[in-house]
Write a structure and sequence with these properties.
By secondary structure, the protein is of the alpha+beta class. The protein has one domain (3-444): Cytochrome p450 (Orthogonal Bundle). It has 14 helices and 13 strands. A hairpin with a 5-residue loop joins strand 11 and strand 12. The longest helix has 32 residues, at 244-275. It binds protoporphyrin IX containing FE (HEM). Protoporphyrin IX containing FE binds next to helix 10 and helix 14. The site of protoporphyrin IX containing FE has 22 residues, from helix 10 and helix 14.
Length: 446
């Protein structure tokens, strides 16, 4: 790999190939409707480095594990993660992912305690009863829409584990405000005109801010186990603490970062297990062998086959398919100049699904993650569903815990299937979700 912070003599550098796509919209439609194919076509046409236009910006695509390492390791602080603002605007103002460099390091250190083992075990205890009561209420049927049910469940779990239990009407009001805030950034009209998603997002964000500000004094005084209380208590050895405004901003961001990502991961696992009944049965046997109706934190590493299935689902469908950054100064990558101020994009989707790095990448083959095959270890930045480097997902163990806790209970209570020729198609408008919400045949076990 040849990459450096200082740009060598300009004459040594190659011009970046690429094209601007369609007038005004660039390649946006390709990325919304067929990202899975478009990203490979880009590589075929231009190779590892190319420029293009989409979603109102020009960006340099850097493809493959070397590029992931160059950008995510970010030696010399060359790339700023605040590039995300272009996509999620002010709706997630000063969330952890949007902070950079020293300020980000400081906030991340403070937040770390809320994601350590003891805190996670506490969140699991808060979530388990709600998982049990929700799944107990699901009905057998021929067209059970997996994505919709999981989305509702993970929203409820968010209010248990992140906010502490909320009474019905308050929970409903906040859930609606949260959904409006999350949906707003994909509005084409980026101004709060009446009736727009953008305006509902502005109002939603305000409702969330007001709620957190109002509840802060009581949370600061509480010994609750939820994440909101953990952030209120967080402090470093030298006594640094989050301000009230920091907590409001972090809470709103974390709610968003945790929600669709876990739902998508689980949806894809359930899809793959519907297509592979032998793997579904293998996971069911593994869960039965634990001989307990709900998962405890110490059980997580015991579910080896489930771990492989989760990794494989995250490989085939990375919930965050691409990661943007902005170059803060000129730099060089593999003989190309990346000018200061330019947006760059790396692609987990490309890296995870290219035959250059995986055997038979379209095949669902969880054992590729076993110790004996360890295909993901070919390059340290080959499997990056959680990103890498300074901004690597701080909630990855939380996500694993939530996904496994739900799937464990589902496997013990239900069996599910799809028709042999069924293929789940994705909508990439924001994060990849099934266009048809994944209808499965759900059967309750005796
Ligand atoms: C399986 C589910 C998840 C996936 C695939 C996922 C993916 C990611 C990715 C790719 C990033 C890095 C973004 C970047 O570098 O630009 C990230 C960051 C982040 N994630 Fe997750 N995430 C998941 C679950 C969660 C959960 C459950 C939480 C919280 C409970 C969470 C909180 C965060 C936060 C706070 C960041 C920002 C970290 C930083 O900038 O230092 N994520 N996530």
């Amino acid at each position: 790999m040849s990459a450096s912070a200082t740009v060598t003599a300009a004459k040594d550098l190659r011009e970046i190939p690429g094209d601007g796509g369609w007038p005004l919209i660039g390649d946006s439609l390709d990325y919304i409707f067929r990202l899975d194919r478009a990203i490979h076509e880009r590589y075929e046409k231009y190779g590892e480095v190319s420029w293009g236009k989409a979603f109102g910006t020009r960006a340099i695509a850097l493809l493959g594990p070397d590029a992931n390492q160059f950008v995510l390791q970010n030696r010399g602080d060359l790339f700023a993660s605040s590039a995300w603002e272009h996509f999620i605007a002010n709706f997630f103002y000063r969330g952890l992912m949007l902070l950079d460099f020293d300020e980000h390091r400081m906030h991340r250190r403070l937040m770390q305690g809320a994601f350590q083992r003891e805190a996670l075990a506490g969140y699991l205890q808060l979530m388990n009863p709600r998982i049990a009561s929700t799944i107990a209420g699901w009905q057998s049927g021929a067209r059970f829409r997996v994505y919709d049910h999981l989305k509702a469940l993970t929203l409820d779990l968010g209010s248990e584990a992140f906010l502490g239990h909320l009474p019905g009407p308050e929970a409903e009001r906040l859930t609606q405000a949260f959904l409006d805030t999350v949906r707003a950034p994909t509005d084409l009209i980026r101004y709060p005109l009446p009736g727009t998603r953008w305006r509902r997002g502005v109002i939603g964000r305000r409702v969330l801010e007001e709620y957190f500000r109002r509840e802060l004094p009581a949370k600061r005084a509480s010994q609750d186990a939820d994440l909101f209380a953990q952030l209120c208590r967080a402090h470093t050895e030298d006594g640094a603490r989050f301000s009230d405004e920091d907590i409001v901003n972090h809470m709103i961001f974390v709610l968003m970062a945790a929600h669709d990502t876990s739902t998508i991961t689980l949806t894809n696992m359930i899809y793959r297990l519907a297509k592979s009944p032998q793997w579904q049965e293998r996971l069911r046997e593994e869960s039965r062998a634990l001989d307990k109706p709900v998962l405890e934190h110490d059980d997580l590493p015991k579910l080896e086959s489930m771990t492989w299935v989760m990794k494989e689902a995250l490989r085939i469908c990375a919930p965050v398919p691409g990661l943007p950054r902005r170059a803060v100064r000129d730099c060089e990558y593999k003989g190309f100049c990346i000018p200061a101020g330019h947006m760059v994009q790396i692609s987990a989707w490309f890296t995870h699904t290219s035959p250059l790095y995986w055997t038979n990448p379209q095949r669902f083959d969880p054992e590729r993650f076993s110790d004996s095959r360890a295909e993901d270890k070919g390059h340290p930045f080959q499997w990056i569903p959680f990103g890498g480097g300074a901004h690597k997902c701080i909630g990855l163990h939380f996500g694993e815990m939530e996904v496994k806790a739900i799937l464990h209970q589902l496997l013990l209570r239900f069996r599910w299937s799809v028709a042999e020729d069924y293929e789940m198609r994705q909508d990439f408008t924001s994060l990849p979700i099934p266009r048809d919400r994944l209808p499965v045949r759900l059967e309750r076990l005796q």
